[in-house]
Each structure stands twice: as structure tokens, then as C-alpha cells.
């Protein structure tokens, strides 16, 4: 018989997600960012003190405030819908009907199971059905959904779904190849392995179109 704590550890160590959406409470934004920073600052102070760190030392006494600001303003800033980038689109006046691929988009995210970094590259493509989106907006969409506690499968799906909504087409694809420091630096400590996830919509489900996309990004993985 596995107790509940062991079961939850097994989910985390297996990097399994139980929810296709980020699990946010209804009251997630009832307090301001500044209030969140103050609360997290005290929590980090407690962690460091419990570990036996001397918070009067000049090197570490500012750490609780730095960590709190980093959590709220930076690495988990994508939780706040107010920070969602405006996915402006335009008429495809030049009638470009082929695949558009934005590859090697930098991904910095955080594993929601151990709060350790996920670092890699996203490759995103779409085929216009009449609308196009600015290239930098594709990067910003990746960044927005990456800046939250994540699992890579969910991140891949969210990027595709956001672009499908913005462009009004199912013909969107995303592949992410990333290293998880919860695998590389702890547990099995495999520094070489990386994780590849994919989401293919519309025409990208067709073998020829999928293969063309994977050839563009020079990925040999078979899907």
C-alpha cells in the first residue's frame, strides 16, 4: 500500500502532469505583486534559517528579497494573465501559403515538481489561413507560457493552442527539446539526456507536412 505522500512523490519524480492547465486557485490574484513578494520573502527567510544559514551575513541577507522578486516578477510572471502578450495578427496580403517556421526559440521554464530549471529550444510553425503573426510575437508567446511552474507537455500544448486561437487556424505545430535540471542535477543525475515533446495540429498531422517541418528543424526524432 502506497501512502498519499509517496504517491505524490512518485508523480513528481515521474514528471507526470494531472492537469492540462496550470493549477491556479480562484483567488490567485486577490493580492498585489508587492504583497506576494513580502509573503514569499518571509517564507524564503524561514527556509534558509531552517537550513541553518546565517541571514546576518552580507552575502545572503538580501537573498530572501531577491528570490521573492524573481518568483513574482520574473520566472513565474507568466502566471499573471495581465502579462499575456497581445497576439496581434495581420491580413496575409502577400498570399504566402507555405509553412512558416520559427526555430530555436529559447525556452527558460521551471519544473513544477521540484522548482528547478527547464532549459531548451522551441520550434514553432504555422500555415496561414488568411492571417499572419509577427515573428517576435511567437517568441513572446513561448516566453509567457514558459514563465510559470510547468511540465513540458503542457507548455507545448499551450503554445500551439494560443497560436491556433490567434491565427484562426488548426495548422500549427510546436516541438520543444529541453533539459530538465530535476533530472540532470538530482535523482538519476543524467547530465546528457533531454526531453522532446511535440504538438501537431491540422495539416501538421499529415505525414508529409509533419516530415517537412521536422526536416526544417533538423530533428531526427520519429513521431
Automatic annotation (TrEMBL):
GO terms for molecular function: GTP binding; GTP cyclohydrolase I activity; zinc ion binding. GO terms for cellular component: cytoplasm. Signal peptide: none annotated. Residues 40-217 form the GTP cyclohydrolase I domain. Zn(2+) binds at residues 111, 114, 182. Pathway: Cofactor biosynthesis; 7,8-dihydroneopterin triphosphate biosynthesis; 7,8-dihydroneopterin triphosphate from GTP: step 1/1. GO terms for biological process: one-carbon metabolic process; tetrahydrobiopterin biosynthetic process; tetrahydrofolate biosynthetic process. It catalyses: GTP + H2O = 7,8-dihydroneopterin 3'-triphosphate + formate + H(+). InterPro entries: GTP-CH-I_C/QueF, GTP-CH-I_N, GTP_CycHdrlase_I, GTP_CycHdrlase_I_CS, GTP_CycHdrlase_I_dom. Gene3D superfamilies: 1.10.286.10, 3.30.1130.10. The keyword GTP-binding applies. Keywords: GTP-binding, Hydrolase, Metal-binding, Nucleotide-binding, One-carbon metabolism, Zinc. It comes from the Bacteria. The keyword GTP-binding applies. Its EC number is 3.5.4.16. SUPFAM superfamilies: Tetrahydrobiopterin biosynthesis enzymes-like (SSF55620). PANTHER family: GTP CYCLOHYDROLASE 1, GTP CYCLOHYDROLASE I. Homopolymer. Belongs to the GTP cyclohydrolase I family. This is GTP cyclohydrolase 1.
